[in-house]
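Thread: quick sanity check before group meeting

JM: Hey all, I'm pulling together slides for Thursday and realized we never actually wrote out the predicted structure for the chain we discussed last week. Dropping the sequence here so it's in one place. If anyone has concerns about the input, flag it before I start.
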Amino acid sequence: MNNDQLKPADLPKLGQRVALRVLTLFGWRLLFRPLPGPRGICVIYPHTSNWDFIVGLLGKWALDLPFRWLAKDSLFRIPVLGKWFHAMGGEPVDRSAQTGMIQRQAARMNAAQWYWVGITPEGTRSYRENWKSGFYRLALEARVPLCLVYIDYPNKTLGLNQHVFPSGDQAADMAAIRAGFEGHEGLHPEKAAPIVLSERKPD
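JM (edit): ok, ran it. Output follows.
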């Protein structure tokens, strides 16, 4: 058995054990290695199905860690749904702002005592030719590590046990990220984007 695999007996709270048992009931296992610091970015890949959210949410409940995730602010203006998003750790992002979004998010992260945020660099469940580069620029700006999160459907594994510490050498950093995700496939592998950053755009 993988030493990173969590078992219900490892978890102190009833709610955590229930969430893990639900994952186990559907054949999933959860691999987790302690996060390398109080702040960082969970890079979630591949993201090819709506089911990813359900599996990820059960994993979040099992770990009982206040992970956050970002979404466009218009979603949070929807009655009831917006409140639910907030309760689930969602934070609105004003994508209409022309500049400074990365700097503002980095400042928000570093002002918090504990702040890990999940980002899907593909930005869509449909196929695209590359990853958006925002997560990487944010990691460099905030000087935080990455936790590679994979939802591997063929092996029924939710993994949060691979860490990357960005150096600023983009080629080396992306090679490390590709190595960490190697061999893990989403529900629809044909929709997964190649692990290549898009060209930088103003933030």
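AS: nice. The CA atoms of residues 90 and 151 lie 19 Å apart. Residues 8-191 form one domain.
JM: adding both to the slides.
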